[in-house]
Amino acid sequence: MGKQNKKVNKIKTLAVSGGKGGVGKSTIACLLAGKFLREGKKIVFVDCDVECPNDYLLLGEKLKRPIKKVFAEFPKLIKEKCKKCGLCARTCRSNAIFQPRGKYPIFIEDLCSGCGACWAICPFGAIKPEKEEIGKIYLNKIPNSKFQIPNKFQNSKFKIQNFYLITGEAKAGLEETGPVVAQVKEFALKLAKRVKAEVVFFDSAAGTHCPVIQALLNCDLAYVVTEPTPMGAHDLNLILDLCKKLKIPTKIILNQADLGKKQKVEKIAKKYKIKIEKEIPYSKKIVEAYSRGELLNITGLV
Ligand code: SF4
Ligand code: SF4
Asked: Which of 6, 19, 136, 190 is most deeply buried (CB count within 10 A of its CB)?
């Protein structure tokens, strides 16, 4: 486990996830962040859906110049040193090295996770790691003037910057995006510590694959968003199972709760002994705020 997964003292780390795409995960993440903002909390909000980040649009922002580039190391063969022994190909667990009999190994970049096992194992030092850019990190400081701030905070906590949006973006076509998420998280936690944020939100991608696991790892709590459809229920099972394996306390938010049959979702919640924390009905108000990039100002739903 890397440095990025260490907890930062006193900062609450919350993940918002969902097994299925299109259930309103990012929308709910923004609504929750708005709720914490109105409570006067300083927030770092992290878009970990690095293959298709779009939280900045929901928050009415634009991505300008990246604040940081994300790099990873990949293997490069030094032919003059290689004895064609085949040990690297036998070691690679990602099947990213193909070695025809008696020939040099061939590295299949798309399958390589950059784990480093091949250059560590090669007895002849014939593989060296080479740095390659795999993504970018953007930082938007969203001004307090963009939020509807309760009067009680107008002259106190909200005089200072309270909302930082971090967007992770993987290089187009990158097969394994987990390392990008890991580095985005590390950057976010450092920033949160520096600006003394109280809450960090990690808005994960949909699914249960590696980048989602990276986003969820070591969070204090995960909000799992679902919808009352057969697919919603099916994928809820998968994400709850994952959270259980990762030992992350979980709450369920049922979005568009009035548009389907929620019995299956209730059954799964019961199976995992997890409460459905909130049922959010379909709301035109949310759809309009979503399209205007004003979700942080919606109150009373989460
Ligand atoms: S382990 Fe090293 S020497 Fe053996 S095939 Fe791989 S690169 Fe060549
Ligand atoms: S770095 Fe890891 S995944 Fe990539 S080729 Fe080497 S052993 Fe395989």
From this structure: 19
